[in-house]
Write a structure and sequence with these properties.
This protein is of the alpha+beta class. The chain has twelve helices and 16 strands. Helices cover 35% and strands 30% of the residues. The strands form two sheets. Strands 1, 2, 3, 4, 5, 6, 9, 10, 11, 12, 13, 14, 15 and 16 form a 14-stranded mixed beta sheet that branches. A two-stranded antiparallel sheet has the order 7-8. A hairpin with a 5-residue loop joins strand 7 and strand 8. Helix 6 crosses helix 11.
């Protein structure tokens, strides 16, 4: 650890090596120890994520990991990220903060946020925004509403007082994100089905599932569709082939190919919809974040024996620009709902959804979806 600054009995330290990274990863385990809705990450997966040699994300980003310590006990953490690809794509100078966790002590939070702000300003940035862990292609947002249930896979969770701390520091709302929930009992208007079946035939739309025997080729296809489909979306950052494959490698271990759909029009791929089984329903029982010696057994027990995973998260959906606003997105949701029912999933989370994406939000309302969690991204000038 390298000492950055000290105020009273609080030391702010920068992570330097592998042992320090482990401390950074493990800090939340003590903080959330008695929180029934916190889901521990797998320590091995987090180590790979923070490995600047193994994770291609770092080829176009500069990050710093920071810990707060009081009397030899860690009391908080934060990270900063200058995402050069984001800034080039959006023609702006913004630095991100993320991985923000802190005890219920504003003095510690203020010092962590202040150091992050200084780091970001020294890099020539004009704004600080977050939390992003580390980009919009990873985990984003601070939970604002919906603390009564665990997060779905690859969604964030935090203490309620975090929002008070960042607002007290001067950060303002940048954008709100919603998570919608829909369960198998939802009643979908038959007229809606009829309309979209006619649209499907009229536009020669077919939906197929993921071909796991051609996994790498399918990933490359979805990568291309994703970058084309999301170009004009708020916060979008294009993903390189290497980075997309890196993310897909982790997903491959849990993906249900029957819940991944690719839309084709006259045989030409035009969009995709990706849902993942909500592995967090099993991970929450692996309290120490380790697969060995007992963590893997717990996951197997709760997935194979007790069948705890009864939900999916619809993570992302995209259509190339020329096929947007034709109702294909609603077809994706209907297909996900129908197949999910047949496979025994009881509910699905659809997240995250921009607060101003009125078309999608209205479609989900018609399908019986309900907003049940809200997340917020904050920003301020540096």
């Amino acid at each position: 650890m390298e000492l950055i600054t000290k105020k009273g009995d609080i030391e702010i330290l920068e992570v330097q090596g592998k042992a320090d990274i482990t401390q950074f990863i493990k800090f939340p385990f003590r903080l959330y120890k008695n929180d029934p809705n916190w889901v521990p990450p797998l320590i091995s997966e987090r180590k790979v994520f923070f490995d600047t040699k193994k994770n291609p994300f770092y080829r176009s980003a500069k990050t710093r990991l920071i810990l707060a310590r009081r009397k030899k006990e860690y009391v908080g953490r934060i990270a900063t990220c200058i995402n050069y690809k984001h800034n080039e794509f959006h023609q702006e100078k913004v630095g991100f903060f993320g991985f923000f966790d802190v005890i219920d002590d504003y003095q510690v939070a203020e010092l962590l946020l202040k150091v992050a702000l200084i780091f970001i300003k020294k890099e020539g940035m004009e704004r600080m925004m977050g939390p992003c862990n580390f980009s919009t292609n990873h985990e984003v947002g601070m939970l604002l509403e919906g603390f009564d249930s665990p997060p779905a896979v690859m969604m964030t969770y935090n203490k309620p007082y975090y929002n008070d701390f960042v607002e007290r520091f001067g950060l303002k709302k940048e954008k709100d994100l919603f998570a919608y929930i829909i369960d198998r009992k939802a009643e979908i208007d038959p007229r809606l089905r009829h309309v979209f079946e006619r649209m499907k035939l009229r536009n020669s739309v077919t939906l197929r599932t993921l071909n796991v025997w051609r996994f790498d080729a399918e990933v490359d296809l979805i990568n291309d569709l994703y970058n084309r489909a999301w170009t004009y979306n708020w916060g979008f950052v294009p993903l390189s082939k290497e980075e997309f494959q890196h993310i897909a490698k982790d997903m491959k271990q849990i993906v249900d190919p029957d819940m991944v759909f690719i839309a084709e029009v006259n045989g030409q791929p035009v969009g995709f919809c990706l849902s993942l089984p909500n592995i967090n329903q099993a991970l929450k029982y692996v309290k120490n974040g380790r697969l060995f010696p007992t963590g893997l057994l717990k996951i197997l027990w709760h997935t194979k024996v007790k069948n705890k995973i009864d939900s999916v998260r619809v993570i992302t959906m995209g259509l190339v620009p020329e096929f947007q606003k034709r109702g294909i997105d609603t077809l994706f949701y209907l297909q996900t709902f129908d197949v999910g029912q047949r496979k025994g999933y009881n509910w699905a989370e659809l997240s995250w959804l921009l607060e101003d994406n009125d078309m999608i939000l209205r479609a989900l309302d018609h399908m019986g979806g309900k907003p049940y969690k809200k997340y917020r991204l904050y920003g301020m000038r540096v």
